[in-house]
Amino acid sequence: MKRAAGPVIRLRGAEVRLAHATVWRDVDLEVGDGQFVAILGPNGVGKSTLLKAVLGLVPLAAGTAEVLGRPAGEANHEIGYLPQRRSFDPSLRIRGVDIVRLGLDGDRWGVPRPGRASRDARRRVAGLLELVGATAYAGRPIGQCSGGEQQRLLIAQALARKPSLLLLDEPLDSLDLPNQASVAGLVDRICRDEGVTVLIVAHDVNPILGYLDHVVYLGGGGAITGVPEEVINTENLTRLYGAPIEVLRTSTGRIVVVGQPETPTYHPDLAHHEHPHGL
Fold first, then answer.
1. What is the β-pairing status of strands 21-31 and 62-67?
2. How many C-beta atoms surround the C-beta of residue 180 within 10 A?
3. Is residue 278 part of a domain?
């Protein structure tokens, strides 16, 4: 069934409450076809929660959420999702190619379909490995791959079923600067060349800044959305957090945010999976 024309993601007056406290409220967001959009903000503001709301895994207390033309949660078969993760144990023997293949047949416990379907799946996996530049090491155990190599394999897995929307939660986390730049460039290429809309949670905006169409900056229980140059500035962030925040740009174009927003007032367990303040 062809999706009706309109935004890939549309939130109107969205609010999430967890443990009887507000995570964020009055969030309005539209993400168009083929856009690369980042969710930014300090520790504990609910960046990962926003992705889960898009997936319908966290219910809204108010407002509406439409994803791919349907209520959130009803189009998840068209969404690729890479959650936050820790590194694989070095002793894990499953191969990189098998990790990618699980994106196709993980719901069958990795048991492939017989005949042509299996051959098509092998071709699909080979194409994904080539797309993310992982062919050379896909036969190695995943635990023996570097952090950047593991992340490429996991992105390939999330793309296995040809999603229209790709949700990435901190995919650059724990990578060194060269790997951050490499993976950021890969995600942009997937967005532009494959026509996949990307919504990414990022701790540091700088590796992806040059690729972004829009940003969502969360804080103070609300959000500011728009193009990066309009959103990430001293006036906006000071107003969002109700505290003096200064946005500086270095001679190389990097953004530095100076200031300490107040600690969020909602349930402290939510902050466990997010990073300290910063972009």
1. unpaired
2. 21
3. no
In-domain check, residue 4? no
For residue 215, the model assigns a pLDDT of 96
Question: Are 104 and 118 a contacting pair, CB within 8 Å?
Answer: no
Structural domain span for residue 148: 9-273
Cα separation, 164 vs 83, in Å, equals 17
Predicted TM-score of the model (pTM) = 0.87
Q: What is the pLDDT of residue 274?
A: 44
Does residue 13 lie within any of the structural domains?
yes
CATH number at residue 31: 3.40.50.300
Number of neighbouring beta carbons within 10 Å of residue 257? 19
Share of the chain above pLDDT 90, in %: 70
